[in-house]
Amino acid sequence: MRKEPVFVGSPVAGAPYSPGIVVGDLVFVSGQIPIDPTTGAVVAGEFEDRVRQCITNVGAVLEQAGSDLDHVVKVVVFLTDMQNFARMNRVYGEFWGAVKPARSCVQVGALPLGVDIEIEAIGIRKG
């Protein structure tokens, strides 16, 4: 099977990864951190705002690949502080309805750019 890279906007020069990869009907979304795509800056403010931005960024990669959040089958959430688990869950629930994707959540020592959350996903293409 062929692997097709997925980019949203312009690829980051020198980045050693693809934001997404499509293989058949599967869409693999690299970990998304809370970067505002219009400014390129980490989202400041409340933790909940950063969770929303991560999920929004995942959705943007999925849409570019012909999928969307409703077609996500697996999510992995990385937190630098498990004390934020309940706060993450509240926001997470805003994005998925009755059939939620399978999910893992792990605490890690550090994440790129000093952020406190990163989210990766696997989805299927629509149709």
Task: Outline the structure in words.
With 127 residues, the protein is α+β, with helices and mostly antiparallel strands. The chain has a single domain, classed as 60s Ribosomal Protein L30, Chain: A. Helix content is 20%, strand content 29%. A 6-stranded mixed β-sheet has the order 1-2-3-6-4-5, with helices on one face. The two termini are 19 Å apart. The model has no long low-confidence stretch (mean pLDDT 95).
Percent helix: 10-25%
End-to-end separation = 19 Å
Number of domains: 1
Q: Helix and strand string, N-terminal first?
A: EEEHEHEE
Q: In one word, what is the shape? A: globular
Give me the side-by-side strand order of the main sheet. 1-2-3-6-4-5
Give Rg in angstroms: 14 Å
Major sheet attributes? 6 strands, mixed
User: Which architecture per CATH?
Assistant: 2-Layer Sandwich
Structure summarized in a few sentences:
With 127 residues, this protein is of the alpha+beta class. It has a single domain (19-124), classed as 2-Layer Sandwich (60s Ribosomal Protein L30, Chain: A).
Helices, strands, pairings?
Blueprint: E1 3-6, E2 20-23, E3 26-32, H1 47-64, E4 72-79, H2 85-92, E5 102-107, E6 117-124
Parallel strand pairs: 4-5
Antiparallel strand pairs: 1-2, 2-3, 3-6, 4-6
Based on the model shown, name its key terms.
single chain; 127 residues; 2 helices; 20% helix
